[in-house]
Amino acid sequence: NGGGYATIIGANNNMVVQNLGVSGGTIMYAEGKHCISRTVANMREDADYIILEGGVNDLYSDRSLGAMSNGYNATLDDTTFYGAFENMLKQALIRFHGKKIGYIAVHKMTEFFDGDKTEDNAYHAAIACCKKWGVPVCDLNISCPPFAYLKNNADTAFMANLYTEDTS
Question: What is the mean pLDDT of the chain?
Fold first, then answer.
């Protein structure tokens, strides 16, 4: 437990880190929830690296996935997953033009964020948005075992305890 991706990267590279992550936060706006897509304006102006992550907790919202916008100047609805995700990326690209921006697709924690599922879900929406907006993805969803998603499976339960704080 090193405090998250940014803390570990910062500590290993002697960097100042600002972590705006809040446990339970969602990409899309939902009343009473920390909304990740609305925190880009609060990020340090002098940031050289912007690591974005999220999407799993949006499962617990009663909002819809929505649809990808047409073009790059559409009005984006941050009460849908696609709209909020595109809004987050667009804001980051405008505010941090020329800086290194990336998205981490976390490991499989729910069916709502599972790259192995063929139907549209938050994982597929996030990857599609990153592709559209040209944001590189560190895809742990495809590259790692399911950890918490299969925490009740004896073969993977130990990983949930090692690699995820929120195993509920």
Answer: 84
CA distance 160 to 145: 10
Least confident of 34-48, 54-68, 71-85: 54-68
Phi, psi of 100 (to 5 degrees): -85, 115
Six-digit token pair at 98?
């020329």
**Euclidean distance between CA atoms 67 and 128, whole angstroms:** 11
Residue 146, C-beta contacts closer than 8 angstroms, at least 6 positions apart: 107, 108, 109, 114, 156
- Please, which residues have CB within 8 angstroms of residue 67's CB and are 6 or more apart in sequence? 80, 82
Q: Considering only residues 155 and 69, tell me which one the structure prediction assigns the higher pLDDT.
A: 69
Helix (H, G, I), strand (E, B) or coil at 95: helix
Question: Residue 12: what residue type?
Answer: N
For residue 26, the one-letter residue type is T
